[in-house]
Amino acid sequence: MITSSPSRRGFLAGAGAIGAGALMSGCVASNSGGSGSQSSGGPVTLQSNLSSPQAKSAMQNLVDAYNKRGSGKAALNTVASETFRTQLPTYLTSANPPDLLTWYPGSVADSYAKKDLLLDVSDIWTKPDLSGYSDALKKLCTSSTGKKVFVPASYYWWGMFYKKSNFIKWGVQEPKTWDEFIALCKKLKSKGVAPIGLGAGSGTAWVASAWFDYLNIRINGAQYHRDLLAGRHSFDDPQVHKVFDKWAEVLPYFDPNGTALAFQDATTALLQGRTGMMLIGTFFADAAPKDQLDDIDFFQFPIIDPTVQVAEEGPTDGYFASAHTHHAAEVKDLMSWLATTEAQELYIKGSSGTSLPTNPKAKDSGTPLVKKGRALIESAADVTQFFNRDSSDALQPTADNALTRFLAQPKDINSILTNWQRDAQKIWGQ
């Protein structure tokens, strides 16, 4: 679905992750329509998938602060992340849906907008807070029909996270190249430590997609990756086989429990020193004790081919509203406030503080970890989102099936990729 890649300069201009939004057309203001134009009693329902303790608490802080302003009332309903993921289509097609929902922009939001399931909020993008957002974010939040359907709140980065005190104890350092990474894995394994944690079990199989994403953008480049996820290449292409050949080199160093533990439990294993490092997004810190955050660090996913333009994963999070809401005006008021510096700084303060605000005037937490993460994204030549965000929620289960099969039976890669392409083709053909 991507026809052009974002430039580093475009990213720096607005501090927003763009990835899947490069295709989206520009802003076309229009009036909202549908059943959402009227108002009925009761608060705006904000349905949130941010169920980790710190993130949930931070979201409640947002709702409480909004309610104190007096311009409207909102009520938070937090749903376990994986339940939310599977129920989202039901939420959006319900006759009495949640009014506002946390989720992702780009191709994911566009897939729902094409079915007329999202409220057109183009009018609030003309207000001061949102009008100052970067062109990259404006495109990311615009549907293919030209309507603004999303308000971004934060973005974050993925990396190989580890505990600084453990690396010191084990006498190891951050690797830069793939060969140095393999050497690090060997040394950790020799010390009785499972080098690589995963967390692709108990409903979080999607975590494994990060390994596919990073290996593909390091070997084949970000544009090939987006084209593949849009159906312009096949999952059984020789180029994709190269990804799994490289992945097979590090499989012996993965935690044997990698596909049994959810990422939250894999986080615990990392913090307790049972695993050495984990490829994960900064959201994992919301499941970590705050007193351990200063001991957490990360390194860039190793460079494999120096001739391939360096890309990083920088997913954007925020809000879209149901087209069937009965509180359209109130929803837009809340969404407008969630775009402000006040709201975004409040969320960062109440959570782990490892995300970055999308409002160009909002301040991040300023910790060394966040400064390092911002520098990683801002120095990247290209920025991708994540597997389902650069493709669709519907395509994610095909990846979950293929990648967990590969982790269990790597020698069956030929049939795995053949089946993956078959299953993906069904999704693309819908």
Q: Which of globular, elongated, flat, extended, rod-shaped describes the shape?
A: globular
- Per DSSP E runs of 2 or more residues, the count of β-strands stands at 12
Q: Strand order of the main beta sheet, please?
A: 2-1-3-10-4-11
Q: Oligomeric form of this entry?
A: single chain
Mean pLDDT equals 89
Low-confidence stretches: 1-38
- What portion of residues belong to β-strands? 5-15%
How far apart, in Å, are the first and last alpha carbons?
Answer: 15 Å
Q: Order of helices and strands, N to C?
A: HEHEHEHHHEEHHEHHHHEEEEHHEHEHHH
The largest pleated sheet is described as: 6 strands, mixed
Broad structural category: alpha/beta
